[in-house]
UniProtKB/TrEMBL annotation:
Organism, as annotated: Obba rivulosa
Pfam families in the record: Abhydrolase_1
Keyword Nucleus: no
Active site: residue positions: S218 (nucleophile), D451, H485
Protein name: Homoserine acetyltransferase
Region Disordered: start-end pairs: 1-79, 381-400, 410-429
């Protein structure tokens, strides 16, 4: 009895306190919840239905921080090469024919010996910088031009949309000549090697026998290494920025998660959606996952912190009887600023890129592995390392022979020192063996310490393996900063300076 009597007053006081504090929220608890972030998918789908047959408009890039300008190019703004001969593929029968979209900057020298092939990341088009045909900013705008990292006063730069893409080059959304309908998932599985071979078909068409350099970031770094591996005598130098020579399990897992949410969208329809609605919901979610891997926690802590999105001015602000405002009611839809950022990134991308291209190209990235056993599994025999000396920059080629010419070749190897790993990866000797064709090719390896997609340990691994393979012309640098993987798009001073110093 004593226990019951002791509890009753406490219970009454608590009840009274709760009832007065929650009066304004009690009525709201009876309302049917509203979820704008979920309703947005239906709104988008309705907009797509009314827009079928025309180009989709997407939100403009966020102005709240540094973002790369990716956009769907107009077909009239790039050049097109059609290859009417079969292209051998790594995992499938030859592709009967294909198109490659490309753009160029600078002037080709009479000897055609000043060419730089610029390789793109997964979702980029050939529009790396503005041109007369397309004055819009490109995804590497500040790195290409007179006096910039890729100096158009010295070099002729070519950038293509990769095979498998959706910005002009042949991919799953292209028409299959055999059926007259889009390939969809009947398109063959591709490898990074296939993409590079297609690019060299373009070079053959342009009469370009050799490259001064092959330059790439992210997936483009894989292509750059693959170009030097496939064609040691045709590639003078290799630049690998925030890439890898062997896709790691963690990166494969991230890309698998993206493909999984995309393929779970009912609109994906096993890849056959070109006559109907695209899998826009899956694409939005896939892009949100990707965005997490492209940036870094420290950047987001500085940029967004734990701040909430501003409430609309019309929003009711319930208060306690004594006039104090009640704590803000958390929302299950984007509420933190970082959530609104991810939501925006997914929204502005989901209708900009073809879902099947994302699936096929991301799979090609997963399959990339330059270790000797992996190459043997693909029946790829090692070409011999280049026999000719590395190319001299145009500034030296145009001057009389001097000691500077000989010194140039010995000065290419410089590096930020890094301690040897306490536990070297077991695959490092296999990678060194696989990279033998690059033993005589000057290579710049650039990594970013805040990168979680291609961690800096992978950049060290590439540099170490090249040196183990006998390459004495490896330049290796690590960059600080908080931008994560996207540093290669945003840090003009440091990334651009390293490239310019290596190429000049």
């Amino acid at each position: 009895m004593r226990i019951g009597l002791a509890r009753r007053p406490r219970s009454c006081r608590a009840s009274s306190s709760c009832s007065t504090a929650s009066t304004s929220r009690a009525a709201k608890s009876q309302e049917v919840p509203s979820f704008p972030c979920v309703e947005a998918h239906a709104t988008r789908e309705s907009r797509i239905r009314t827009s079928l047959g025309s180009s989709f408009s997407t939100a403009s890039p966020s102005s709240s921080g540094p973002e790369p300008p990716y956009a769907r190019p107009n077909p009239t703004s790039y050049k097109m090469y059609h290859h009417n001969q079969p292209l051998p593929l790594t995992y499938a029968a030859p592709l009967p024919s294909f198109d490659i979209a490309y753009e160029t900057w600078g002037t080709l020298s009479p000897a055609k010996d000043n060419v730089i092939l610029l390789h793109t990341g997964l979702s980029a088009s050939s529009h790396a910088a503005s041109t007369e045909a397309n004055p819009a900013e490109g995804w590497w705008e500040k790195f290409i031009g007179p006096g910039r990292a890729l100096d158009t006063n010295q070099f002729f730069i070519i950038c293509t949309n990769v095979l498998g893409g959706c910005y002009g080059s042949t991919g799953p959304s292209s028409i299959d000549p055999a059926s007259g309908k889009p390939y969809a998932t009947r398109f063959p599985v591709l490898s990074i090697f296939d993409m590079v071979r297609a690019q060299f078909c373009l070079l053959d068409h342009l009469g370009i026998d050799s490259l001064y350099a092959s330059v790439g970031s992210s997936m483009g770094a894989m292509q750059s290494l693959a170009a030097g591996w496939l064609y040691p005598e045709r590639v003078g130098k290799v630049v690998s920025i925030s890439g890898t020579a062997r896709s790691s399990p963690s990166a494969i897992a991230m890309r698998f998660a993206q493909r999984s949410v995309l393929m779970a969208d009912p609109n994906w329809n096993n890849g056959f959606y070109y006559d109907g609605l695209p899998p826009h919901t899956g694409m939005k979610l896939a892009r949100q996952i990707a965005t997490i891997t492209y940036r870094s926690g420290p950047e987001w802590d500085q940029r967004f912190g734990r701040k909430f999105r501003p409430l609309p001015e019309s929003a009711e602000q319930p208060s306690l009887p004594d006039g104090r405002p009640l704590p803000r009611t958390p929302a299950l839809c984007p509420d933190f600023l970082i959530e609104t950022y991810l939501d925006h990134q997914g929204e502005q991308f989901c209708l900009k890129y073809d879902a099947n291209s994302l699936i096929y190209i991301s799979k090609a990235m997963d399959l990339f592995d330059l270790t000797a056993p992996a190459l043997a599994d693909l029946h790829l025999s090692h070409p011999p390392p280049r026999r000719s000396p590395p190319p001299l920059p145009p500034s030296l080629r145009s001057s009389p022979i001097s000691p500077a010419h000989a010194y140039y070749h010995t000065s290419l190897s410089h590096s930020k020192s890094h301690p040897p790993p306490p536990n070297p990866p077991l695959h490092l000797p296999d990678l060194a063996e696989g990279l033998q064709p690059l033993a005589n090719t000057p290579t710049l390896v650039l990594g970013v310490q805040s990168d979680i997609l291609f961690p800096v340990e992978q950049q060290r691994e590439v540099a170490d393996a090249l040196r183990m393979a006998g390459n004495q012309m490896v330049s290796y640098f690590e960059l600080g900063g908080v931008w994560g993987h996207d540093t290669f798009l945003l840090d003009v001073q440091n990334v651009g300076g390293a490239i310019r110093g290596f190429l000049s």
